[in-house]
Amino acid sequence: MKKILLLNGPNLNLLGVREKNIYGDQNFVSFFEELKDEFPDVDLSYFQANSEGAIIDEIHRVGFEWDGIVLNAGAYTHTSIAIADAIAAVTTPVIEVHISNVHQREEFRHHSYLSAQCKGVILGFGLNSYRLGILSLMLS
Ligand code: DQA
C-alpha cells in the first residue's frame, strides 16, 4: 500500500473559516476523512504546521521512505528557499498543490520557490487539487 502524506502549511488549519470566497467552506479535517474513504488502498496521513521549520522536519521525516507528499506550503511557497532545499534533499516525490489559481491573484503569488524541486504542480481546482495530487502519485 502506498504511503502518502498530505502536508499543509500556514493558515491552512483555518480552511472553512478563512476567506471562504477563495478557499471554500469545508474544513480540511472533514475533507481528509472523505479522502480516506475514497482511497482505501492508499495509506494517507495528514500534517499541518504554521511554522517553516516544522514543515521541513516533516519533509525530512517521511522523505526517504514514503511514496509521496502532496504539499500545499501556503505563503511559504512564495518565500521559502529552505523548504525548496528540503524538497530537493529528499527522494520521495513531492507534488505542489494550491487550492486557488495563484496566477489569477496578486503578482507576489505568481512565483514559487518550490515548483522547480517538485515532481509536478496542480493548482486552481479547489480542494480537488489534493485529490488530483494523490491520483498523480498513484499513477507513478
Ligand atoms: C495557497 C495560495 C497561497 O498564495 C496562499 O498564501 C495560501 C494558500 C492556495 O492553496 O491557494 O495560503 O497555497
UniProtKB/TrEMBL annotation:
EC main class here is lyase
According to its UniProt entry, the protein's GO biological process terms are:
amino acid biosynthetic process; aromatic amino acid family biosynthetic process; chorismate biosynthetic process; quinate catabolic process
> What would be one Pfam family of this protein?
DHquinase_II
Keywords on record: Amino-acid biosynthesis, Aromatic amino acid biosynthesis, Lyase
Q: What is this protein called?
A: 3-dehydroquinate dehydratase
Encoding gene, per UniProt annotation = aroQ
The pathway entry for this protein reads as:
Metabolic intermediate biosynthesis; chorismate biosynthesis; chorismate from D-erythrose 4-phosphate and phosphoenolpyruvate: step 3/7
UniProt similarity note: Belongs to the type-II 3-dehydroquinase family.
Q: Which Gene3D superfamilies does the record match to this protein?
A: Dehydroquinase, class II (3.40.50.9100)
E.C. numbers: 4.2.1.10
Domain of life, source organism:
Bacteria
